[in-house]
């Protein structure tokens, strides 16, 4: 069959002189073809122009592409490369080395890099949610903790997008500034509100990088800090009063309730520290009521923390990344996957018309 197909491709029989001849025969090469009933050792005819391929391999090539795509999907889902090779061996009866799986995953690098550096200039992101997640990376036979800065943008239409991530050596004023400049270089316009928790150097970097931008302090962590400064015993009335303040979406009402609580409890020694924390951090914790029209999803970093959990789920399997390149590859692939999932959703994350 392959010989007949080569003859049809060349448009001439063996030793036939023909004006319609496309090319010349060029011997054979050996190739295995794995089928359901075993492996066939084939002598495959070839042509001098190297453009001929028997149709017997078309299905094989399609299956091979599907298999490679499935292997990449397993890797992105957090399956270790060693286990990927075992799964392929069980499915196909052929073993693939761990190093082959690793080299295959490198095909993701240009895709991740392109997505990581795509332009942001065609959209406005009035709300920016930022956070950092720490991962372990092996460098020069040492296991080091690295920071991965991540940003989510909320568009004017209420859609959420992962707009950037960057792996750096630490978390500081300088690294946050570098991260924000990276976003701005790609076309990010100054957001109206940046939502984050109190990370080292972050608030300072926001003020330096984004002028005329408000900072919304994550309320969940803020509440935890307040409650961590009071005794557990007999503190329920105080806790309930504080929680009631954080239910307001009108800053004036919230401020009035806060002032009443502070005046009532600040003279009590066991609540004085909590009242001080609440009073000092109140304005930053309620900026979403002024800038974000009181939308509850803008008062915390819960969205990004759920995203961080997806990264953590993969990290628990890998435990220690072998190098920075593999870290960028896997985290980037995971974030790309989630980003595409968000874009395909028909639901708005925030409905600004309400």
Features:
354 residues; alpha/beta; 2 domains; five-stranded mixed sheet; two-stranded antiparallel ribbon; 7 strands
Provide a descriptive summary of the structure in words.
- With 354 residues, the protein is α/β, with parallel strands linked by helices.
- Helix 3 (81-92) crosses helix 4.
- The radius of gyration is 29 Å and the shape is elongated.
- It contains 14 helices and 7 strands.
H/E order of the elements? HEEHHHHEEEHEHEHHHHHHH
Spatial order of strands in the largest sheet: 5-4-3-6-7
How far is the first residue's CA from the last residue's CA? 68 Å
- Write down the overall geometry: elongated
Radius of gyration: 29 Å
How many domains make up the 3D coordinates? 2
State the total count of DSSP E strands: 7
The residue-averaged pLDDT reads 87
Determine the structural class based on helices, strands and strand pairing. Answer: alpha/beta
Proportion in β-strands = 15-25%
Count of alpha and pi helical runs: 14
Spans where pLDDT lies below 50 across 5 or more residues: none
Major sheet, described briefly? 5 strands, mixed
Helicity, as a percent range: 40-55%
Family: Belongs to the transposase mutator family.
Protein name: Mutator family transposase
Keywords: DNA recombination, DNA-binding, Transposable element, Transposition
InterPro entries: Transposase_mutator
């Amino acid at each position: 069959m392959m010989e007949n197909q080569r003859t049809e491709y060349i448009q001439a029989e063996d030793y036939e002189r023909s004006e319609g001849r496309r090319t010349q025969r060029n011997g054979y090469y050996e190739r295995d073809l794995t089928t359901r009933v075993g492996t066939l050792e084939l002598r495959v005819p070839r042509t001098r122009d190297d453009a001929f391929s028997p149709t017997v391999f078309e299905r094989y090539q399609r299956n091979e592409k599907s298999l490679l795509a499935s292997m990449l999907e397993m890797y992105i889902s957090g399956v270790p490369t060693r286990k990927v090779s075992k799964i392929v061996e069980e499915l196909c009866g052929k073993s693939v080395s761990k190093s082959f799986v690793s080299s295959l995953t490198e095909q993701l690098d240009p895709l991740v890099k392109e997505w990581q550096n795509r332009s942001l200039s065609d959209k406005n992101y009035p709300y920016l949610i930022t956070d950092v997640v720490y991962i372990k990376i092996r460098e020069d036979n040492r296991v080091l903790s690295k920071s991965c800065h991540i940003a989510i943008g909320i568009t004017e239409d209420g859609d959420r997008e992962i707009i950037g991530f960057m792996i750096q050596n630490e978390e500081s004023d300088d690294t946050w500034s570098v991260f924000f400049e990276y976003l701005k270089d790609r076309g990010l316009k100054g957001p109206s509100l940046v939502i984050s928790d109190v990370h080292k150097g972050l608030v300072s970097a926001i003020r330096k990088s984004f002028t005329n931008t408000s900072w919304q302090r994550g309320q969940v962590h803020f509440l935890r800090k307040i409650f961590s400064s009071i005794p557990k015993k007999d503190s329920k009335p105080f806790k309930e009063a504080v929680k009631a303040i954080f239910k307001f979406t009108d800053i004036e009402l919230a401020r009035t309730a806060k002032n009443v609580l502070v005046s009532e409890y600040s003279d009590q020694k066991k609540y004085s520290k909590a009242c001080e924390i609440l009073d000092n951090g109140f304005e930053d914790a309620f900026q979403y009521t002024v800038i974000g029209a009181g939308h509850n999803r803008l008062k915390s970093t819960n969205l990004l923390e759920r995203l961080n959990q997806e990264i953590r789920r993969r990290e628990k399997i890998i435990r220690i990344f072998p190098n920075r390149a593999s870290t960028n590859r896997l985290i980037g692939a995971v974030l790309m996957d989630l980003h595409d999932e968000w874009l395909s959703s028909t639901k708005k994350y925030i409905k600004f018309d309400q």
